[in-house]
Design goal:
By secondary structure, the protein is an alpha/beta fold. The protein contains 31 helices and 33 strands. Strand 22, helix 23 and strand 23 form a beta-alpha-beta unit.
Length: 925
């Protein structure tokens, strides 16, 4: 059977699923299709023409290369196709977004046939995805006196590829659709269990609203009733897009409600409109901007205030909300992009200028942020070639500088890494700047999309200004099934070729690592002044400042070494008092959220801001527990302010772990990992000699708010509870409901425990081993009344535990130990009451492979308590995922219920849970 016959068979199979033919990205299939187009008598010619014109992925896919070559033949008259004229061939090239299409356009534009060259030049003037090889050809032709090249470069200098685009509509009419009440996780828009299909956009679109066909049909009905309007998806009484950046979620929203990018590129839509009563989660909002979308903070429910301006609360201490205007499903609203207001029937409802800032308006006009980023670089380069000043076409970078005001830690990092700002000008929060990126991370369930984005922006190699980049295998670690076997090796091969360090070696030279990406990034970040971009919401390092991002922003950072973003405001967090000996650092993390909400009357002052935590004395491993959780605090990012000696210790640990990666054979030809070790050694020398102390804010820095956490108030373990049965639906499944252990009275049944994912470190594994020994000594044996799943974050940690004897203890009490030579091919559906030692990776936290049994009450160290993420509902009971410290999880599985405080204290007797003490030093510059 030929490859084309295989494709026809696949088409029939997709028809049964209600799907169109899958877009073509392979050279072999498209070559066969072209062969059939050239044969005028071929029975498949008409279909082949249709596939060629309308169903080929653009950019640097191998199919795009074949398509561009054939279009060139048609334009030059070397091939004749009645249905594809030279003019139509040029139009096709204009939609192919760079790479081979730009190469072909340059071939023709710089050729000898002036008539055709001028037509190709017209198309080139609309393109922005040019790389060094392309611009070098233009520059060389310009220097040689080529008039076409000169004309193109002059057009680029004026940014005509942007200025000649249609202006954004002054009025955009939308019809509302309430997708849920309360915070809406990105899992609703793109479930983790469907991660395998993300790169097949139409197929993945079927999982929108977690496969809820009723909701999908309601949405379609709205579109039919309002064909001239866009549907605006809303999180009523909540925040839209919590949990992750989830580019696939935005892609799904755009597919169902957005505007087609090109009639020649299937299933790629842009310009979605989304909203939330409490706005859009920060990292998800970045993803919306990537697609030229609009994200609106509705504030249609507000806290009521008393005569003294204090928030009025109910009997449970929750703020009482009042509706200021309705956005019920089917409400028609008008977004005015000129006045930057939201209207209903001509009446102003809300100022939405933050959703329509000048940079965001440019993204909307250009169809996404990529075109703007590449456009600015192309304009700058063209002006440099011509030797002229850059004409002011794009909105000026917003530069906020306040004389006499010091800098917060994040302001210092942005000032160091800023690109293209006014020389010598100090920038404060509110500025919007381009910054160079030091470290980039890609994870495996979004990595396939990142590779697609790189292909579509015609990138072929990592930017030379990136210090290091890593492609993980952690999100598909727990089950090595057929989907993983098909997708992950292909991803690793692409990323390895692109220049990343990869968890798996495509050639099989080193043993596959499934380490949790955040932990690897935390180790390879060896600069406290670094900027890190990672394809996951928990890209939150304890060195430097890290931002979780969508797959597209990751691709952009890999390709350009840059990112564009505002400098966020900061909230300063310091500590006082002393921890009780039986408290775990995870309890400090939860107490921070609880005390912050209490201090600010229920208002989350962390949301959308940087948390500058003066943690001082904790090394990067344990401090990461705090920074990791800041994603659930809805913060934009976090920064750890450390003492010099502590930072040195962290860098020594990181250096050792990077060296292990080198020893395993993971470094590449450019010796990226060796370069990171050298960078760490240099930084250690700076710290020891006092040349450059650890990053600290200025004493006169200005903060949005300051929070002081009283450690004396933490008298018992703290648990984040999804409160699944709260009468107010909007208050379920948030991370703000922090309860003390005593709330449960030692009686709440626990069906499954999970110790693992990014929130734990080596110390947690040692605590687990010591607890098991304690329990055996106290009770004569260790017996589990509920299953306990343990997934260490990294292989380095497993190796260290083996060397120190702790792994042997865990194996002694376990009923299952992972075997990398025979990884699980199927996810578990049932668990026995025993300890499972699972492969390093995300495991239950990701929700795309392993899950608890429906209806279970899970006690976990992870970060995810969203509905359906770790555990689905059963017909009889809602599944719930309570989040707590390692000791609480372990003891809950031994007892089969939540422990009492007395039981807890006995189980941790003699165990040093944390060495955290507030720094006695003033950690300011």
């Amino acid at each position: 059977m030929s490859i084309y016959q295989d494709y026809l068979k696949q088409i029939e199979e997709r028809k049964d699923q209600g799907l169109h033919p899958q877009p073509i990205d392979g050279a072999e299939l498209l070559s066969k299709i072209i062969e059939q187009i050239k044969d005028v008598d071929n029975e498949y010619r008409d279909d082949s023409l249709n596939f060629f014109i309308y169903n080929v992925l653009p950019g640097t896919t191998s199919a795009a290369g074949v398509k561009a070559k054939f279009l060139k033949e048609i334009i030059l008259g070397e091939s004749l196709v009645e249905e594809i004229t030279p003019a139509f061939a040029l139009e096709q090239l204009s939609h192919m977004k760079g790479g081979p299409s730009v190469e072909v356009l340059l071939d023709i534009a710089l050729g000898d046939d002036m008539a055709i060259a001028e037509e190709a030049a017209k198309v080139l003037k609309t393109q922005v995805f040019l790389y060094e090889a392309d611009t070098e050809r233009l520059e060389n032709a310009f220097k040689a006196g080529n008039t076409i090249a000169t004309d193109i470069i002059k057009s680029y200098a004026q940014a005509e590829f942007f200025t000649k685009l249609p202006d954004v509509e002054e009025e955009i009419e939308v019809v509302t659709y309430i997708a849920g009440v309360g915070d809406i996780s990105t899992d609703l828009l793109s479930p983790g269990a469907d991660a395998h299909s993300r790169s097949d956009r139409e197929l993945h679109g079927q999982c929108m609203f977690e496969h809820n066909k009723d909701m999908q049909n309601e949405l379609l009905a709205l579109k039919e009733q309002h064909p001239d309007k866009r549907v605006m998806l809303i999180a009523e009484k909540g925040t839209m897009g919590v949990g992750s950046s989830r580019m696939s979620g935005v892609n799904n929203v755009a597919l169902w409600t957005g505007v087609p990018f090109s009639k020649y590129v299937p299933f790629i839509n842009f310009a979605p409109v989304i909203a939330g009563t409490n706005g859009i989660a920060p990292i998800f909002l970045t993803t919306v901007s990537v697609t030229g979308g609009i994200g609106i903070d509705l504030k249609n429910w507000v806290s009521q205030k008393d005569a003294e301006g204090k928030t009025i609360v109910d009997k449970d201490g929750e703020p009482i909300l009042k509706q200021t205007y309705s956005v019920d499903t089917g409400t028609v609203l008008t977004i005015n992009t000129k006045t930057k207001k939201l209207y209903k029937d001509g009446e102003e409802l809300k100022d939405i200028s933050t959703a329509l800032t000048p940079p965001k308006m440019e993204f909307i006009k250009a169809g996404g942020s990529y075109a703007v980023v590449f456009g600015k670089k192309l304009q700058t380069l063209a002006c440099k070639i011509l030797g002229i000043d850059i004409p002011q076409v794009y909105a000026t970078s917003k530069e906020v500088s306040i004389e006499g005001q010091g800098l917060t830690a994040v302001e210092k990092i942005f000032n160091k890494n800023a690109v293209g700002t006014t020389p010598g000008k100090t920038l404060h929060a509110g500025s919007n700047v381009r910054v160079e990126v030091n470290i980039v991370g890609s994870q495996d369930t979004t990595g396939l999309m990142t590779s697609q984005e790189l292909e579509m922006m015609a990138a072929t190699v990592i930017s030379p200004i990136v210090d290091g980049a890593y492609q993980s295998g952690c999100h598909t670690a727990s089950v090595w099934d057929d989907k993983s076997k098909a997708n992950i090796p292909r991803l690793m091969s692409f990323m390895n070729d692109f220049g990343l360090i990869t968890g798996r070696d495509p050639k099989g030279k080193y043993f596959p690592m499934t380490d949790v990406i955040h932990k690897v990034l935390n180790d390879i970040t060896v600069g406290d002044w670094d900027i890190i971009i990672g394809g996951d919401s928990h890209t939150r390092m304890s060195k430097g400042v890290a931002f979780g991002a969508d797959s597209g922003t990751v691709a952009l950072a890999l390709a350009t070494g840059e990112a564009t973003m505002p400098i966020p405001e900061s909230v300063k967090v310091t500590f006082k008092g002393q921890m009780k000996s039986y408290m775990d650092f995870r309890d400090v993390v939860h107490a921070t959220q609880q005390q912050m909400l209490k201090q600010f009357g229920g208002e989350n002052v962390f949301q959308g801001r940087i948390i500058e935590v003066h943690i001082g004395t904790l090394t990067a491993d344990e401090a990461f527990t705090f920074t990791d959780w800041t994603a659930e605090m809805k913060a934009k990012a976090s920064i750890c302010i450390s003492e010099d000696d502590t930072l040195i210790e962290s860098l020594e640990i990181a250096k050792g772990r990077i060296q292990i990666m080198i020893d395993k054979g993971m470094d590449n030809a450019k010796q990226v990992l060796k370069g990171l070790v050298d960078k760490a050694e240099t930084r250690i020398t700076e710290l020891k000699t006092g040349i450059k102390p650890a990053l600290r804010p200025d004493a006169n820095a200005k903060y949005h708010a300051e929070v002081i956490i009283d450690l004396d108030e933490i008298s018992e373990p703290m648990i984040a509870d999804p409160d699944v049965n709260n009468d107010d639906v909007s208050k379920r499944y948030t991370h703000d409901n922090i309860r003390p252990l005593s709330y449960y009275g030692g009686t709440k049944k626990v069906d499954l425990g999970f110790v693992g994912s990014c929130m734990v470190h080596k110390g947690d594994m040692k605590i687990l081993a010591q607890m098991l020994k304690n329990i055996e000594a106290q009770h004569g044996k260790v017996e589990f009344k509920a299953p306990l799943v343990v997934a260490p974050p990294t292989y380095n940690i497993v190796d260290e535990l083996k060397a120190e004897g702790d792994w042997e203890v865990l194996v002694k009490y376990s009923g299952f130990e992972f075997d990398d030579n025979a990884p699980k091919g199927l996810a578990r559906t049932k668990y026995e009451n025993m300890l499972y030692l699972e492969r390093p990776g995300c495991n239950l936290c990701m929700g795309n492979q392993e899950k608890a049994e429906p209806g279970d009450t899970v006690m976990a160290t992870s970060t995810r308590l969203f509905q359906g993420r770790v555990v689905k509902d059963s017909g009889e009971k809602k599944g719930e995922s309570l989040l707590s410290s390692t000791p609480v999880v372990v003891l809950s599985t031994i007892l089969g219920r939540t422990p009492t405080l007395a039981e807890y204290e006995a189980a941790v007797d003699g165990i040093v849970l944390t060495k955290f003490k507030p720094s006695t030093k003033q950690l300011v510059g």
